[in-house]
Amino acid sequence: MLIEVKVPQLSESVAEATLVSWHKKAGEAVARDENLIDIETDKVVLELPAPAAGVIVKIIKGDGATVVSGEVIAQIDTEAKSSASTSAPVAVAKSAEPVVAPAAPKAMPAARKIMDEKGIAPASVEGTGRGGRITKGDVLGAGAAVAPSAQSPAAAKQPLAQPMAVNIDAVLADRPEQRVPMSRLRARIAERLVQSQSMAAILTTFNEVNMAPVMELRKKYLEKFEKEHGVRLGFMSFFVKAAVAALKKYPVLNASVDGNDIVYHGYFDIGIAVGSPRGLVVPILRDADQLSLAELEKKIAEFGAKAKDGKLTIEDLTGGTFSISNGGVFGSMLSTPIINPPQSAILGVHATKDRAVVENGQVVVRPINYLALSYDHRIVDGREAVLGLVTMKEMLEDPARLLLEV
After folding, report:
1. pLDDT, average across residues 224-248
2. How many angstroms separate the CA atoms of 406 and 399, rounded?
3. To the nearest whole number, what is the mean pLDDT of the chain?
4. How many helices (H) and strands (E) does the chain have?
5. Among 41, 27, 162, 29, which residue's Cα sits nearest to residue 95?
6. Which residues belong to the active site?
7. How many CB atoms lie within 10 A of CB 94?
């Protein structure tokens, strides 16, 4: 019996997707729910499980093909048996390349990415994960003995599968150029940033925050917090709580623009900008005002892990009423973050450094973080923006107010 493999239903905001890499070749057996191929949209990478057990008899759409919801991309014969020398028809020759398919079924997404970038043969890596799957740690251990020049030619043939894998050594030698197509996510990021700059009247206000009170509180309860809740107490949960306090006080910062209307949101869905191998993504903390510090830290850690492994879903990334971007994790001192439309404001957090400041007429050293609040001046006046940022500053410099909500 022939079963059609179809592209899953995509989000209403996603018109089409790209087939990244097949994990099976025509003629190979597959188990039910085994991942057949990675499908990249402008938001996430989806795994397409096999609808039934059997043998792939035909691959209709190969790597790099553009597809839409419900489109048939392969056929599975549930009664056929796998053969090493199959004569099954293959519609797209690229799909029969023996590079990606053998490695992918036993490699985690992050591990597969590193192997493609460094040209590490899957057969040379021993998997320690469940069922013998190759993990990122396995590849990093094996990669230590692989020379940079050993990058496989097949990996270079798949720019769509690994758009971020640029050979730096080759680019810097003898003035060559390397042209790499944008991934769907990168193209979407570019489109939204240009849209934000062209449609919104963006202005940024700054303030400095003495982080000593938060740092002292965190240091005092770090071990107890982790023991009690099973997650480390970071700084981002404090920034989220401080932002929510300001948004409650100045609701226009939590609003959005819809044509000539201002939409005030009675909920606080905070987007947290997270770096991933595919680019910047912004998963959403739903109802952040109702979450405790521990619950916030758990969700943030979960988003970080999912972003690293390419497991974020469209639901994780959809919506949001306000965003926080933490350039401090990369060492940024100051920046002017760009609003994520249709939101009206975004908070930029930066690196905390010891700086000389004046307190009561005396020069003292304090751990200072520069905060930047970019806002849409079409609906947010300078007063609300400045006072909103001052509210965040006051909450962080007296974190007991965050817990008491005063």
Report:
1. 95
2. 10
3. 81
4. 12, 19
5. 27
6. 377, 381
7. 15
pTM of the model: 0.63
The bridge status of strand 279-281 relative to strand 202-210 is unpaired
DSSP string spanning 181-233? PPPHHHHHHHHHHHHHHHHS-EEEEEEEEE-HHHHHHHHHHHHHHHHHHSS--
Preceding omega of 342 cis (within 30 degrees of 0) = yes
How many other CB atoms sit within 10 Å of the CB of residue 51? 16
- The answer to whether 40 and 7 have CB atoms below 8 angstroms apart is no
- pLDDT value for 164: 52
Q: What distance in Å separates the CA atoms of residue 48 and residue 3, rounded to the nearest whole number?
A: 14
Lowest mean pLDDT, pick from 36-40, 111-115, 217-221, 369-373: 111-115
Largest CA distance in the chain: 85
Is 126 a residue whose pLDDT tops 60? Answer: yes
Distance CA(266)–CA(279), nearest Å, equals 30
pLDDT digits (tens, 9 = 90+) for 295-314: 999 999 999 888 888 788 87
* Start-end of H helices in 29-173: 100-103, 109-118, 136-143, 153-156, 168-172
AA identity, residue 309: D
Structure tokens given for 267: 């909920």
Q: Which amino acid is at 61?
A: K
DSSP secondary structure letters along 281-297: E--EETTGGG--HHHHH
Specify whether the CB–CB gap between 200 and 336 falls below 8 A.
no
DSSP 132: G
